[in-house]
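Session log. Operator J.P. requested a structure for one protein chain; no other inputs attached. Running the standard single-chain path with token output.
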Amino acid sequence: MSVLVVTGTGTGVGKTVVTAAVAALAAARGSRVAVVKPAQTGVGAAEPGDLAEVRRLAGVTDLHELARYPDPLSPAAAARHSGLDPVDLRSAAVLVRTLADERDLVLVEGAGGLLVRYDEEGATVADLAHELAADVLVVVDPSLGTLNHTALTLEAMAHRGLALAGVVIGAWPAEPDLACRSNVRDLETLAARPLAGALPAGAGSLPGAEFLLAARAGLAPALGGTFDAADFRRADHH
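Structure written below.
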């Protein structure tokens, strides 16, 4: 069994698309894959959330959303504002362990960044990853400002003893600017390892078969793909 927590340096960096890409590649290999979203915010009861996007892109149907709040806030603030109970990350950990007993891979997608609060006591997805002893995949934006956000995320992980599965660029632009190209090497320096992937911007709008190809090309072998960080750097990203 294997559990992988997917977090990011903030909101809108591509966590759901990366989660779907990892799930799609694992499912294509015949692995039994489950995806857990402890808290979905900013989506109404009848609206499709992040797991619907994972289903559309990856074809995975073993999906588990534990709590949903309509306001686009942190899970703790969204629960408080709506008057609903906050999600219990201890119960989430129990569910993930139960799923992992019968699946080859369980992906856990967090909300926002690593230290976003899930309840009034300050529980975070970092605490969940620590409880599960799970590796953490960090999804980042390649543009200006990412180095500080990434450094803070990785420092917080190290402080909590969390293992880094890799750093993935969630949406690499078709025409990267100087900041994006320069940041590639610096992101690798911060992570002390090559990039674990870079998915093309717009990958989330691709149909399933094309998305699978993009996932395979955009994720490193450790995540089931063929992405080569050295080739990516040599292309024109230096």
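Operator note: The chain is about 40% helix and 20% strand.
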